[in-house]
Amino acid sequence: MTTTTGVAPIRADEVWELVAEVWESLLQLPAIRADHAFGLQGAMTASVTIDGDWTGLVTVTMPPTTAVAVTRAMLQIPETDDVSDADVADAVGEVVNVIGGNVKALLQGSTSLGLPRVELEWAPVHAQLVCRAGVEWPGHAARIGVWHLPSTATSNDSMGEAR
Amino acid sequence: MRFLVVDDSRVMRQIVVRTLRQAGYDGHEVVEAVDGADGLAKVAEHAPDVVLSDWNMPNMTGIEFLRNLRAGGDQTPFGFVTSEGSDDMREVAEAAGARFVIVKPFTAEVFSDALAPVLG
Questions:
Q1: Dihedral sign, CA of A82, B35, A146, B84?
Q2: How far apart are CA A91 and CA B110, in angstroms?
Q3: In this structure, are strands B2-6 and A111-113 parallel, antiparallel, or unpaired?
Q4: β-pairing verdict for B78-82 and B29-33
Q5: Chain A: which residues have CB within 8 Å of chain B?
Q6: How do residues B25-47 score in pLDDT, each as one tens digit?
Q7: ipTM of the complex, rounded to two decimals
Q8: What's the CA gap between B69 and A113, in Å, rounded?
Q9: Residue B83 contacts A, CB cutoff 8 Å
Q10: Domain Chemotaxis phosphatase CheX-like: where (chain A) (predicted)?
């Protein structure tokens, strides 16, 4: 599904291109586009805000087991070794940071990127969906969303309310 | 040769170090720093041959780090490794004295191309 706003005509196809590149070069995992929904129960959410001429946020949502798989891929940690919560938060935060930086580059005008924030549980986004793209690879799936926020609503409290 | 890798993400520092190895810079010394302020201290302490720094970091950003270095007379070759690669940002980086801007996600080839002219 592709929805756009007048202020940020970012298309799901553009987001998907970024996501595929991140998966293939940063995670070194094969990436298949899969825009079907998956259960959000227990999923974790990482987000990064964009402020300036356009305000909003970029989110990555995935189940905890997938977040661990992403961390293993990024740090090349074998299945036999444990992965710490700190490494998971760092790795997933960096994924959203890189995608957020590339989304920012698609925007017109002057904007700045916030620092990544990682919620260890599902954090519904209280904002208008611009577009989203899903990615799937063997055994795992994740969803990337771009959201628009009115400029006055961009703050650390922008997430956490039910939508 | 000595590299200074500056990023608030440990995961990203590790990926940068791995990519340096894949780009042919294997067996060299790598020093890490967690933000610009730590980077400034590590430059003074270790005198690296090149600095690879993130842009967006808490405490002191990458561009503040670079400007502080140059304001203090330090001319260590400096490049950014950042998720933000807009033309505006490249201009700001070059004006401050950066030799290259590598945009995440990156490949080993991109590292080779950026570092070869700097390191000879």
A1: negative
A2: 22
A3: unpaired
A4: unpaired
A5: 21-22, 24-26, 71, 74-76, 87, 90-91, 93-94, 97-102, 104-105, 110, 113, 115
A6: 999 999 999 999 999 999 999 99
A7: 0.86
A8: 24
A9: yes
A10: 44-118
